[in-house]
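$ ./design --mode recover --in tokens.txt
reading tokens...
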């Protein structure tokens, strides 16, 4: 067989295999090109998305050197830092965060870079033109399959405006706090001034209240002084009589002389009245001591802390201090029920009670009544875990159009010079704002007025009375 004939059919086959290989390479290259185009499209989409974001996005290579080298920044970073993106690539990330402006933060970031732990911080950034701004930054790290750190990813934003808002908010809060403190200081001074005004107004009456027992203390002491002289005189006569009788003189002679001396000093009267004088003196001393003690309790500077106090005793103390204000215009009727101790500032509540009692006395005086027809009733009771104190009078009452105004500062219906309009306003502030209670008023013009004070009681089991 001709060899040419045998080999000729093989030539198209070899060409076919070559064509197939060339076709497969072209398809592979086309597939790779399509894949690269797809990846480039996705990369462009990612870059476009990151550039469109308002947040900062930075990627730094951690393998090239000991310092993180920037390999990617989005448009927000470049814009806010004042650079073109290309100007930032290849630079040390820390170049943009001056150490002199970020001393503490640099330590924190340096520790994170050494340990590869995530970190969130706020740092000052220096722009290309030298100006600075605050950036909030979160840093995290990428690792390869062997857990070695390869890249650092930083996400952040310009927070200068937010920090300025926070500083402004803090400034306004501090200003508000200072204004509140100043308001509280002025309120305390106003309450103290009102209390001193009350004490000053009551001073003349208190002096009169003290003067009465002092007078009969003085009278009793003068009598006792005179009685002592008479008794000393009698003692001398008795001693002389005893010596005369011892010398042998007749008792019939001495006796009449002694009896005449006893009649001269009225011994029977002295024997009867001397004990009474001591009793009156002790009563006077007790009365003065009671007034002084009540005044001391009432006028003592207020403590800043609340403490458990006997409200009924506080009411009785205030009645002692205010007695000269009401004794010529009204009889006092008290019905003080058993109350637990109330956690309060009792000095402030004394001022409330004084204002209510004095107002009641003045209302009775304005109605034309006197001590025989005027009446002030003070009651206390425990109801719904509240101490309820009421002060009502049969005075002139309050006009309906004034009921809503009586707790307003500086509102008063009294003539100029007789009222400042602060008493009830301060009373309401003390009861409502200082003690979380309530104060209400009921009044009928021409008939009388009732003030009701409600004070919350802390959980206590013991009940006390005065």
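writing sequence...
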């Amino acid at each position: 067989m001709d060899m040419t004939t045998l080999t000729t059919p093989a030539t198209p086959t070899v060409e076919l295999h070559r064509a197939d290989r060339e076709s497969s390479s072209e398809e592979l290259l086309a597939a790779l090109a399509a894949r690269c185009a797809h990846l480039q499209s996705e990369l462009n989409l990612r870059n476009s998305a990151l550039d469109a974001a308002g947040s900062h996005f930075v990627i730094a290579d951690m393998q090239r050197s000991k310092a993180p080298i920037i390999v990617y920044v989005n448009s927000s970073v470049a814009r806010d830092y004042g650079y073109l993106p290309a100007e930032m690539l290849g630079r040390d990330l820390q170049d943009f965060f001056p150490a002199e402006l970020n001393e503490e933060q640099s330590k924190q970031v340096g520790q994170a870079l050494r340990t590869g732990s995530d970190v969130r911080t706020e740092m000052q950034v220096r722009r290309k033109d030298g100006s600075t701004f605050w950036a909030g930054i979160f840093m995290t790290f990428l690792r390869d399959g062997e857990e070695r750190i390869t890249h650092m990813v930083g996400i952040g934003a310009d927070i200068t405006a937010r920090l300025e808002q926070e500083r402004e908010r803090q400034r306004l809060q501090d200003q508000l706090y200072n204004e509140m403190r100043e308001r509280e200081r002025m309120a305390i001074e106003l309450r103290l001034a009102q209390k001193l005004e009350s004490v000053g107004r009551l001073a003349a009456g208190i002096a009169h209240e003290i003067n009465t027992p002092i007078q009969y203390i003085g009278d009793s002491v003068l009598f006792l002084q005179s009685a002592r002289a008479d008794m000393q005189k009698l003692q001398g006569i008795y001693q002389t009589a005893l010596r005369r009788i011892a010398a042998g003189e007749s008792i019939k002679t001495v006796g009449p002389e002694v009896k005449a001396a006893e009649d001269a000093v009225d011994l029977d009267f002295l024997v009867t009245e001397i004990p009474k004088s001591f009793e009156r003196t002790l009563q006077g001393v007790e009365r003065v001591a009671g007034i002084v003690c009540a005044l001391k309790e009432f006028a003592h500077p207020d403590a800043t802390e609340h403490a458990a106090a006997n409200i009924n005793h506080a009411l009785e103390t205030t009645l002692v201090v205010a007695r000269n204000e009401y004794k010529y215009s009204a009889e006092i009727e008290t019905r003080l029920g058993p109350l637990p101790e109330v956690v309060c500032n009792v000095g402030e509540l004394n001022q409330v009670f004084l204002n209510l009692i004095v107002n009641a006395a003045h209302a009775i005086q304005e109605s034309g009544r006197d001590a025989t027809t005027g009446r002030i009733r003070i009651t206390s009771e425990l109801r719904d875990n509240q101490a309820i104190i009421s002060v009502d009078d049969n005075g002139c009452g309050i006009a309906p159009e004034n009921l809503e105004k009586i707790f307003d500062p500086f509102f008063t219906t009294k003539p100029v010079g007789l009222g400042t309009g602060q008493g009830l306003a301060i009373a309401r502030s003390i009861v409502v704002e200082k003690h979380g209670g309530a104060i209400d008023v009921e009044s009928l013009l021409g008939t009388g007025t009732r003030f009701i004070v409600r004070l919350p009681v802390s959980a206590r089991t013991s009940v006390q009375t005065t």
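exit 0
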